[in-house]
Amino acid sequence: MATMHFFLPLLPDEHYYSRIARMAVLTPTKSITDFYHAWLGVNRVLSPLKDYEAIRHDVATTTHANTKTTAREDVLYRHTSAGFYRHFLNVEQQRALLDVASKDKRKAFFIPWLTKVRHAHCWQSCPQCIEDDITKFGTSYWHVAHQLPTATTCHKHRSQTLMTRCNHCGWQQTDLRETPLPDISCPECEHDMSENLPVANAANAAIQKIGLALHLSSDTSQRPSHKPQIHRLVEYAFGDTIRDRQQAYWETKAQIEHAFWDWVWENRIDSYFDVNADEELQNILCLEPIMNTPTKVTPLAHIIWLAFFHHIGQFDHARLSSAS
Ligand SMILES: [Zn+2]
Ligand SMILES: [Zn+2]
Known about the structure:
By secondary structure, the chain is mainly alpha-helical. The protein has helices at residues 16-25, 32-40, 51-62, 69-79, 82-85, 91-98, 127-137, 202-216, 233-245, 249-266, 278-284, 287-292, 299-311, 318-323. Helix 8 (202-216) packs across helix 13 (299-311) and helix 9 runs parallel beside helix 13.
């Protein structure tokens, strides 16, 4: 690995890849390929998809083996999406994530169906944060909170929908090697990407609130929780509904599922996914596997169901803190 002659610190809530991309901007153009090769070893796309799996090796090398686990934990949990996804990993997987030596356990961190989650492989940015960050730090940068699969608006500018793509030419922010710094104008056609953004609804806000709570939760690997995980919360909320309605299980289940799908179509929940047909979405969000085989279901499906149970008054956010 080539010696790096400069090293930029991570900015607040900055994604780990964003810092690498900012450093690339300061590197002379002719050595840019060498620069990325030195950092990534391989020709890797700088995508938020499974970032923590890819990054943990970089974190291990750049924070040195003798650095305390807490430093690596801080980088992974605060500067990648691991802070969010770790809640869907078991305690052993969470420990392996932070263990420098466990190089061969990549597959251990498998999160199902991520490739179907639209925001999981596209970078999102907030036009107001871009302006604020330039004023405050002299540069725009990619925030982790904007990259959560649950994020539709900015966590700071609550009503500001995030930019993912150009509404004019369809260009998408997928690789930071192409767009090292977030910008309001499209790099392809120079249109203003902050124009005509969809307005977030109450369902989007509820989904986002749960995602952000998981991302910001402060428990550590030193004190991992052995309480029932987030994986079980949909089942609990459903159980409460059964008790409240005092009718046959199948009857409640049919009513709940019916109301859920009305809510999904009303609130355009399908826009969270890249699916070809309604049946595909119905498989991803199907209630039975979420309760019966919860670890085989994508995290966003759990969160969407929790947001729905919150909507019908069967889910209390306090449960999140005891589960995460
Ligand atoms: Zn913002
Ligand atoms: Zn464009």
